[in-house]
Amino acid sequence: MAFTSYDFLLFFLIVFALYWTIRERRWQNLILLAASYYFYGWVQAWYAVMLGISTLIDFFLARGMASTPDRKRLFMGISLFINVGVLAFFKYFNFFKDDVVSLLNGIGFQVGPLLITILLPAGLSFFTLKKLGYMIDVSRGTLKPTHTFIDFALYVSFFPQIVAGPIERPQKLLPQIESPRIWKMENFYKAWPLIVMGFFKKLVIANSIQVIVNRIFGFAEPSGFLLLSGALGYTLQILADFSAYTDLSRGVSFLLGFDTTENFR
User: Cis peptide before 170, with omega less than 30 degrees from 0?
Assistant: First the structure.
């Protein structure tokens, strides 16, 4: 569900209305958590299931490190093994997806590369590194683990950030999740310039450059000058895409009462 889609607009309007209608922080967090899992499971429901299982494991491992410090290294090792193992599996799995397709077709399962690609979890790197940052801080003693699973799960899955970051430090986002939030017009004043700029970067800059870049790399024998132009154009396209996403992410977060990290300046 892209930030620039009509689906997201309808989704966010519903979440926004429910979220600010309720004044109690715990219920606000529960609404945001449900919305985040719905957002993440929009393409494949099992994405949300995998996210929930991995979040639950790290929640109890972090609590274990705090309650039994002498076994801290063991709990940290388990977390590293699970998180890095899952991340490495899916990253390398993507390289071998053609072989996997051939194997599955050979044993009677008719699948194609597109289906395999769809099944790969989006945003896996971002929420994995986010959880690992939390676990490392807890193991070092620079952060006390949260005692509320809903708060921790929301920190991991916060939907404005889960697909493409930015990766938020727990010391900045968790205190905001654990604090009461009330609507202020200041939220809107901070949000609208970011949202307008995000749409401009994505729809006007990135999408326009993408048309030119695709034409250049579509030529059978492009000249060296065209190849250089295409490479520079693609660089600008990627920069505008990620910068736009960060602007939109921060703008949406401000509308929900959160101040998140500036990733591009």
Answer: no
Helices (H) and strands (E) in the chain, counts: 12, 0
Report the C-alpha dihedral over residues 181, 186, 190, 193, rounded to 10 degrees. 130
Q: Are 60 and 138 in contact (CB under 8 A)?
A: no
The candidate with the shortest Cα–Cα distance to 238, out of 214, 207, 216, 265, is 207
* Structure confidence by residue, pLDDT tens digits, 97-150: 555 555 545 545 454 554 445 445 667 778 888 899 999 999 988 888 888 999
Span 146-165, pLDDT tens digits: 889 999 999 999 999 887 77
| Claim: this prediction has a pTM higher than 0.85 | no
The C-alpha atoms of residue 172 and residue 203 are separated, in whole angstroms, by 31
How does DSSP classify residue 181? Answer: -
* DSSP character string of 239-261: HHHHHHHHHHHHHHHHHTT----
Tell me, what's the pLDDT at 115?
47
